[in-house]
Task: structure prediction
Amino acid sequence: MTELVSLKGIVKHFPGVLANDNVDFTLRRGEIHALLGENGAGKTTLMNILYGLYRPDSGEIYIEGRRIEISSPRDAIKLGVGMVHQNFKLIPSHTILENIILGLKEVGFIINYKKISEEIRKLAESYGWRINPNAYVWQLTAGEKQQVELLKLLYRDARILILDEPTSVLTLQECRILFQALKRMAREGKGIIFITHKLDEVFAISDRVTVMRKGRVVITKETSKTDMSELAQYMVGRPVLFSIQKERTQPSGEAIIIKNLKAFNDKGVLALKGVDLVVKKNEIVGVIGVTGNGQQELVEVIAGLRKAAEGSILIDGINIANSSPDRIIELGVAYIPPEPLKYSIAPNLTIVDNLFMKAYRYKPYSNGILINWKKIYKKADELIKNFQIISPSLSTKAKSLSGGNLQRLILARELSGLIGDKIPKLIVAAYPTKGLDIGATEFVHKTLIEYSRKGSGILFISEDIEEALMISDRVAVMHDGRIVGIFKPGEVDMEKIGLMMAGVQVVPAI
Amino acid sequence: MAKTSRIPYNIKIQKRLYYSRKLSILTTFSAIIIAFGVAGLFFTIIGLNPLEVYSYIGGVFASPTLLLESFKRAIPIGLAALGLSIAFKMNFWNIGAEGQMYMGMLASTGIVLLHVYYGLIPDYLVLSLMILAAFLTGGLWCCLPAFLKAKMKVNEILTTLMMNYVAMYLVDFLIYGPWRDPKGYGFPLSVPFPEYSKLTVMFGEFAYGGLLLLCLTAVIVFIILRYTKLGFELKIVGENIEIARNAGINLSKVVTVGGFIAGGIAGIGGLTIVSGIIGRLRPRASPGYGYTAIIVVLLSALNPWLIIPVSIFFGGLFVAGDILQATLRIPGAAVEMYQALIFLFIVIGEFMKRYKITITRGVVE
Result:
C-alpha cells in the first residue's frame, strides 16, 4: 500500500466561511507533497483536521487504508501524524531533551537521561543536524528550534509529517539544511506535507503539488509536469504577471530629506549611526538590507514613534524629528507599519473603526468634540469599493479579514487622502508585502506605483531584493545603521548588492 | 477496525471563534441563579431555610417602600459603575471607585461646612457647587493614578486600591477631628446638611431626583463613548496601546482625561450618599458601593443602559442584607458573600462563553 493518508470529501464550516469544501487529498509513502494556496485558501484548516485540532463537519479520514476518527492531536500522534506549526510550541526555559520527552508516556517515571540524550543525538545526526540535547531552547536559532520540533515528532515515530510554512522563519542557509533533511526523511518512507504559498519552494522540494483556492482543491499534479506560471494561475484564479511594467516619471522636488539621523534601539544601542537619504516626489526609493540593520528604527523615527538622538528629517522645510506622531500625520506622512496586527490593525474593532483610526479627529469627520459617523460611513463605503476590500459589512470585526484584505484596509486608511483630502506627501511602507500571497502583493505594488505617479514620495523597506529592484526608482542598501550605497536598478549586479548588504562599500553613498 | 470494548471519552476545550448575544445573556443569568443556589447551600449549613431567605430577598422588590429604598442605594452604585464603564473601556482597571466616592463626599461636605460655618456661599449656589466640587475631587483622585499609568506605567490596580484607604481614613480623620459637629454630643458626625444642599430639593424624595441624575449621567456616558472623539480614542487605547500610538493618539492625554471623568462621576456618586441617603457625613458612609460597582459594570458588559437596572438589583441586595440582619440575625456579610459568588460565577461564565467544551467518544486504537 502506498497511500499513507487519504482525505475524502472533507467539509468544514466556520461562522460565515466555508473553509474546506469537499476536499480530497492523498499522501503517498515516501513523497513530499506541497500544499499550495494563498492565505485563507483552507490549507491550514485541512491540516488541522488531519492533526485533530478541528473536527470536520463531514468527510472521511483514512490512514494507511483504515478509516479513522481523530479527535485530538494526541490521537493524531498515536496514529503517526505529527505537525510543526508556524510558531513553535516549545518551552524556552527547558532543554531540548526535556521538550522532546514532554508528554511521552513511554519514558516512564524515572527518566534515563543519558540513554535518551544519546538516542536524540543519533537521530539528529542521521539527518545531518548537530544538536546538543541538553542545550536550552531559548539559546537556539529559529532553524534549530524547527529541528527540535521535527525531532520531537521523529522520536515519537511519526510517519506523516505536516509542516506549516516552515521556511517563513528561516534564513536561506537554514532552508537548505531543512530541505536536505526532509528529502532524507522521504527516502526513509515517511510522507511529508509541506504547506506553503511560495512557488519556488514547491519546485525546490516537492514530488507532487496540490493547489487550493477558496476552500477547494483546484488540482493535484506531479511537480515535474507543471511550471510556475501554471501553478500561479491555479492559485490566484487568473494569469499573474511576474514583472511590472513601470512608466518612469520624472522626480521633482524633495518629499523628505534625512540628514545624519541617529537613534537608539530598544536595548539602548545606537541603531541608526548617521543616515543620509533623500526621497523625491514621484519617486520610489527602496531600502534593502539584512533585517535588523536599522530599517525598523528608521521608519519608526520618521513616523514619530521613536526619538531621534541627532540629525534632522525635513519635510517641506520643517524638521519633524521628535515631533509627535499626530503632527507628522498632519504633515502628510502615511505610514504602513510592519506586522499590521501588532502596530496597525485592532482586530476586535470594526472595519470602519480601523479605517478611520487616524482620520476620525480631523474635519469633516469631527468638529473637535463629536464624531460625524454619518460622513464616516459614507466615505468608508467608497473606500471599501476603491480598495477592493472584501467583507460582509462595515461593522464586521477586522479579525475576520484575510491578510490581503487587512493590507488593503491599511492602504485605504493611509493613502486615500482622508486627512486634509490630499494624497500623502510621503509614504513610508515597511515590509508591506511580507506574508501576503501573490494577488495581494500585486495589489500593493500597483497601488504604490500609482501613488508615486500621482506625486507621493515613497520610502519602501523590503527584505526581498528582487521586489525592491522591480518597483523602485532608486535602491538604497542599509548596513549597520547607515546607508552604504544608492543605485538605480540595473546599474549594479546582484553580486555587488550582496557585498554592500554585507557592509562592503562598492557604490558611493549619496 | 477499532476495538469497541473500551471507547475512551475525550474532553476537549476549544476556543470559540464567535459567540452569540443570546449565549452571553444566558451565561450572565445562569451566574446569578447558580450563585443563589450555592448561597442557599450555605444558608442550609448555618441552619436556615434558604427558601425563607430568598423570600425576604424577593420581598424587597415586591414592596413599594423597600423598592424605593433599593432605588436610593442603586444611585451611588450606578453612578460609580458609570464612571467605571469609561475607565474599563480604555483598559484602565480602576478599583478605586470607593475612594473616589469618599473624596466626593469629602468635597461636598466641605462646601456645606464653608456655607454653614462661614456663610461664604449663597443658599441657591450650594448644591451646584457641591456637585462641581465632588466631580473635581473624585476626578483628581482617579486622574493621579491614570497619569502615573500613562507616563510611568505604574500599575493602576495597586494605586487605585491603595488610594481608597487614603480617602477613607482622610474622611475618618476629618470627621473625628475638625469636622465633627460641635453640637453632636461627641458622635463622629458632621453637621446635618441644610435642606437646600440635599438632593431631596428636586422632588422631595431623594430616590426620584437621584434616579433622574443617574439616567442623565447614563445618557452623557453613552454619548461620550459613542459619539465623541474622546470615546473613540478610549476604545482604541483599550484595544491596544501600540496601535493607539501608531494612530497618533496622545496616550497620556486620553488616559488622564478618561480617568478624570471616570473618577468625577464616582465622586458625584459619593455626593449622593451624603446629600441624598444620609444627609450628613459620617465615617464609613459607603458600605462598599464602590466595590459593588465593579461587579455591576462587568455584569452590564460596560453598557450604560444596563447599568441602571443592574444597580437597582444590587441596591436591593443591600436592603435585603439589612433586613436579613434584623429579622433572621444573619450576619450582613452573607449578602457580601452572595455578591462575591455572583462575581465568581460571572468569571466562570466568561470562560464558558469563550471556550467550547465538548465530550466525544473517539474511536481510536
